[in-house]
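Bug report (template v2)

What were you trying to do?
Predict the complex of my protein with adenosine-5'-diphosphate-glucose.

What happened?
Run completed; filing so the output is reviewed.

Input:
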Amino acid sequence: MSRLIVISNRVSAPRGSHSGAQGGLAVALSAALREHRGIWFGWSGDITDQFTGHINFQREEDVTTATIDLEEQDVEEYYNGYANRTLWPLFHYRIDLAEYERGFAGGYQRVNERFAETVFPLIEADDVVWIQDYHLLPLGTELRRRNVTNRIGFFLHIPWPPRRLLSTLPEADELARGLFAYDVIGFQTEEWLEAFRDFVSKEMGAEIDGDDVILDGRRVTAIACPIGIDAAEFRALAGSTRARLAFRRMRDSAVGRDMIIGVDRLDYSKGLEERFLGYERFLREHPEECKEVFLLQIAPPSRGDVSSYRKIRTTLEGLSGRINGAFADLDWVPIRYVNRGYSRDELAGVYRAARIGLVTPLRDGMNLVAKEYVAAQDPEDPGVLILSRFAGAAQQLSEAVLVNPYSAEELSDAIMLALRMPRDERVRRWRAMMDNIEEQDVLWWRQRFTDSLMSAKRLQDA
Ligand code: ADQ
C-alpha cells in the first residue's frame, strides 16, 4: 500500500506514554503509520484566537504528525458540543443526555470543513486516506467536494445506534448520507453494521448489494471489522520490570485478598455507577466472603468541560464514599477509587494481579480494557473476565462471564461465580479468549480494513 494519511480528532505522539485520554486509538494506529511513512492529521488540542489553517508538522520515527489549532467557539460547538453532547450520548443510547442544538451542528460542519481545507493540499495522488471516528463523519464529503479522488475509508469506533434512536437526531439523514462519500466504512461489530444498513435502507431507500450499500449512485462497502490490541506487545509489557513492580505492589497491599479491577475513562457509558451498585449488592449478600476481596477502580476523568461528566464524577464519589462508609472495617476498605491514569506497563502489572476483571459498560463500541486484561494474565493461573453483553468485545470474548450490567443481581452473582471458579475452568476460558485476541489483533484489524479499502469496487475506477 502507498502512503497512509490518518485523520482523527486528536493526534498523539507515535510512541508517547498513554494517558488514557486518547483511548485505544493511538496505540492501534501508530504502527500502521510507521510502516507506511504516514501522516497523522488532527486538532492539536490548543486554542487560537483566529483560525488560520497553519499546520504544525512534527516528525518522529517515520511518522509525521500534522496538527492545527481551533478557535474557542469551534471547540465549544464541535468538540464539547456536537461530538460529546450530541453524538456520543445518542450513539451510546443515552438519548436522555443528548442535546440537539443547531449551533452545535453548525460548528461541527464548520470544523469538518476546516479539517478538509487544511488537509487536502497534503494529499498526494496515490495516498490512502483513513478517517477515524464520530467527530469526522462528514469529512469524506468535504474532501470529495475539493475533488479528492483518492481511496478514503472511515472507521467508527463507537456503536451505530438503532434506527429509531438515530431518527431523533435532526441531522441524521445528512450524516448517514455523508458516509457514502467513502469507499469503505468499518464498524466494530455485526450489530452496529446491521443497524447502519437498517437505517439507510429503511429510512433513506438505500439498496443493499452484498457488502455494498448504494444510495443515489454512490456505492460504499460497509464491513464489521473489530479492533484488537497488540497482544504480543501487551504480554511482553506484563513481563516488564515496571509491570512486575506494580504487580508486587498490588499483591503486597492486597494482603491475601482477591482483587477485582476496573479500568475505565470516567464516562457514563462505562456503567461505573451500576458497577458500584452491583458490587454493593455482592457485599450485602455475601457477608462471609466479602472481606476476602476488594475492588480497585481506576477512572481518570475525561471531558470535564461537559456537565454530564462532572455529574457522573460527583455521583461516583458519593457512591464510593457511601459504600466504604457502610462496609469498611479497621483493616479493610471495599472500594479503592483512584482518579488518575497509569502507564501501560503499570496497568499490565495491575491487571495481572487481579483475580477478576470487571468490564461492565452499558454500551461500548468495542472495549479494549477487556482484551488487555485477558492478555496480561498468567496462563497457568489466569483471572476471570466479567464482561458486559453490551460491549462490542462480547461478540468475540464469549468465554468471559457475560452479564447484563444494569442488573445488580447479575453482577453480584457473577462476582461470586468468578471467585469460586476452579483453576481448570479459568484456564480453559482464558485460552479460548486469548486465541481470539491473538488471532484478531490490531494488525489483523488494520490489514482487514486497508485490504477492503484497496479492493473496494469504485464507480470511478469502472
Ligand atoms: P474508549 O472509550 O476510550 O475508546 P477503551 O476501548 O476501553 O475505551 O480504550 C481505553 C484505553 O485507554 C485502553 O487502552 C486503556 O488501557 C486505556 N486506559 C483507560 N484507563 C486508563 C488509565 N487509568 N490509565 C491508563 N490507561 C488507561 C473508544 C471506544 C471503545 C473502543 C476504542 C477503540 O469507546 O469502544 O474499544 O475507542 O476503538
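What did the reviewer find?
Confidence is low (pLDDT under 50) at residues 16-23. The chain has two domains: 4-228+442-456, 234-438.
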